[in-house]
Design goal:
249 residues; alpha/beta
């Protein structure tokens, strides 16, 4: 669970992300997975501060945002109000996902599945996603590739902004990458406040993800390169994945 300090700086760290374009790509992925059938109701898992949630709602979708971090959801709620759109937000572990009614699609953008480090967590999330999709519904998510994650430990990285400086050091443990981040946030009067954040991500292989999706009952499992509709290429840093709950009968 992200602490309030990290939630408060998250959008500054992600200010180079083109969320409208990313949301449009996700809508296109879902349309492909569903053979053009419309998507009206969608659940976004790991919605964080709600940037993607806002864009999906602006596109006319009925969105439910789910995240484990209450501070992140508080920011998401403010962001939705400022944007003039609405979406219910639920503080919930996506491995124990519960919704009032099934949805047409479920998305998990921006490394959400990388944070599922145990096989049991991945299996639980895929099972819950399958259970909460309507027949013919689609799951779409993205993961950072093993090549990207393992490259992080080669050297520490840092960024020095006027109001925020952070240091990032990563260490590999098998298929896991531990990330230690130290932030210095300008407070005024020449003073900075320090806080630390530790995260862990798992480098999933395509074979592992496909096996888990098939075990959960999904069909039509497709891997795409980073925001393309072509198969992944070796040097790409991100895979997008879609899978479909079979139609009944």
């Amino acid at each position: 669970m992200y602490p309030a300090q990290f939630a408060a700086v998250y959008d500054r760290l992600m200010d180079d992300v083109d969320y409208p374009a990313w949301a449009a790509y996700y809508r296109a992925l879902l349309s492909r997975a569903r053979d053009g059938a419309p998507v009206r109701k969608v659940c976004e898992c790991g919605c964080g501060t709600g940037s993607m949630t806002v864009e999906l709602a602006r596109a006319g979708l009925e969105v439910v945002g789910v995240d484990l971090s209450a501070p992140m959801l508080e920011i998401a709620g403010d962001k939705l109000r400022r944007a003039g759109v609405s979406a219910p937000l639920v503080c919930q572990d996506m491995c124990r996902l519960q919704l009032h009614r099934p949805v047409d699609a479920l998305v998990c953008p921006c490394d959400g599945v990388n944070y599922l480090v145990e096989d049991s967590q991945v299996a639980a999330f895929f099972r819950r996603a399958y259970a909460l999709l309507k027949p013919g519904g689609a799951l779409a998510f993205d993961v950072s590739t093993p090549g990207k994650l393992f490259a992080l430990e080669q050297a520490p990285c840092y960024e020095d902004r006027e109001e925020l400086t952070y240091l990032w050091v990563s260490a590999r443990r098998g298929n896991l990458v531990d990330m230690s981040l130290t932030f210095f946030l300008r407070q005024g009067g020449g003073l900075y406040r320090r806080f630390d954040e530790v995260q862990c991500q798992r480098a999933h292989t395509q074979e592992e993800l496909r096996a888990q999706l098939e075990k959960a009952g999904f069909e039509g499992i497709t891997f795409y390169g980073d925001r393309t509709f072509a198969p992944p290429q070796p040097a790409q840093s991100r895979w997008h994945v879609t899978a479909v709950r079979p139609r009944e009968g």
